[in-house]
Amino acid sequence: MSGPLADDFGREVTGVRISLTDRCNFDCVYCHNEGLGDTRGPMDPQDDEMDTDDVVRFLEVVAEYGVEKVKFTGGEPMLRDDLEEIIRRTPDHMEVSMTTNGTFLPGRAEDLKEAGLDRVNVSQDALDPDEFAEITKSGAYDEVLKGVEAAVDAGLDPVKLNMVVFKHTAGYVDEMVDHVAGDNGLQLQLIQYMPELTGRPEWNIDIQRVHDWLAEEADRVETREMHDRKRYWVDGGMVEIVDPVENEEFCANCGRVRVTHEGYLKGCLNRNDDLQSMGEMTREEIAETFEDVVANRVPYYGEYMVENDDGEYEINEKYLGTPTAD
Fold first, then answer.
1. Rounded distance, CA 266 to CA 275, Å?
2. Is residue 7 in a domain?
3. Quick check: 265 and 23 in contact, CB under 8 A?
4. Host domain of residue 169
5. 130: which residues sit within 8 A by CB, 6+ positions away?
6. First to last CA, the chain
C-alpha cells in the first residue's frame, strides 16, 4: 500500500465520502444533497446509482492510495438494501462511518455494527416534534429518537447528532447541548448553514455567536486537526462546530474527496465544476480519475474563491474559463 496522495497544497487525502443514493424519505428545507442541489427523484432504486460492486471496487482502489476512512451518505443511505454488504466488503483497515436520518436504524443497527460500521451521525435538528416536522417535512420524530437509541445500544457510539444551525433551529442549540451532556453515548455536531448551496440567505445566522456562547459555557476547548474544527466540552458532553463558510483554515485542512451516487468524483463540497466521471468504473479508470481529482483540488476559500475589495467572494481569475469536467 502506498502513502496518501497529496494535492498541490500539501493536503493528503485520507478520507472519502460516498453518496450511495440521492433518494430520501425526508425533505429537509436546508438540504443541498452533498452540494449538488435538489436532485432527488423517485424513491425506487434508480439505474444511475452505483451498484454494490462499483462501490466496493472504488474503495479497494483508493485503499491502495492510503485512504483510511470512508463515510457513507445520501440522500438516505439506509434506503440501500445492500448497505450491510457494502460495509462488510469495505477494506478491513478502513474506518467506516455513516450519516443517516436514523429512521431505519431500529432493526438494522446491530446488523450494521456486525458488518463493520464503526460509528454513525444522525440528523436531529430539534428536540421539538413540531419544529422537527417543519424542518424535515416528516412526522418521523419518534422514529429518529428510537434510531439514536438503537445505535447506542448496538455499540455505534459515540453517536453524533447533526444539527444544522440556522433561523429555524438556533433557539434549540442550548437544549441540544444539554441533551448530550454527561456520558450517554451522544455527541453534538453543530453544522453551519450554507446559504450559497440552499438559496435562502435570509435563514443564515452568525455562527461566531454560537462559538462565543459555547466558549463561555465550556469546561475546556480543543482544536481538531481535521478542518481546524473547535470542540467544546460542556458538563461532560462534547459539542463540535463545523463551519466551512468563508473559512480559509477549514478548507486548508480538508483531506477528503467526495463521490456522487452516479459515480462522479468531486474535490470539494462547494464545487460542481470539477465533477469527473469514473466511466465504467474499471480499476484503471477509478485510479486515473482519483489521481486527477486530487491533483486538481483547490482550497475553496482563499484560493478558488477570493475576497474582493468590497469584501465579497468571487472566483479567482486564474480559474475563470476552466472547462467543466465531463
1. 5
2. no
3. no
4. 15-298
5. none
6. 30
Domain-located, residue 2: no
Which CATH number covers residue 45?
3.20.20.70
What DSSP letter does each residue of 241-258 carry, written as one string?
Answer: EE--TT-HHHHHT--EEE
How far apart (Å, rounded) are the C-alpha atoms in residues 275 and 258?
A: 10
> Mind spelling out the 3-state secondary structure of 148-198?
HHHHHHCCCCCEEEEEEECCCCHHHHHHHHHHHCCCCCEEEEEEECCHHHH
Does the residue 308 lie in any domain?
Answer: no
Q: Digits of tens for pLDDT over the chain (326 positions)? A: 578 999 999 999 999 999 999 999 998 888 866 655 555 555 666 678 999 999 999 999 999 999 999 999 999 999 999 999 999 999 999 999 999 999 999 999 999 999 999 999 999 998 989 999 999 988 899 999 999 999 999 999 999 999 999 998 999 999 999 999 987 899 999 999 987 666 688 999 999 999 999 999 999 999 987 667 899 999 999 999 999 888 888 898 999 999 999 999 999 988 888 899 999 999 999 999 999 999 999 999 888 888 888 888 888 988 876 544 44
Beta-bridge partner residues of 307: 313
Peptide bond into 158 cis (omega under 30): yes
What is the Cα–Cα distance from 67 to 17, expressed in whole angstroms? 11
Neighbouring C-alpha atoms within 13 Å toward the C-beta of 71: 19
Q: Is 306 a domain residue?
A: no
Domain count, the chain: 1
**pTM for this prediction:** 0.91
Task: Extract the C-alpha cell encoding 230.
Answer: 473547535
**8 torsion bin: left (phi>0), alpha (psi -120 to 50), beta (else):** alpha
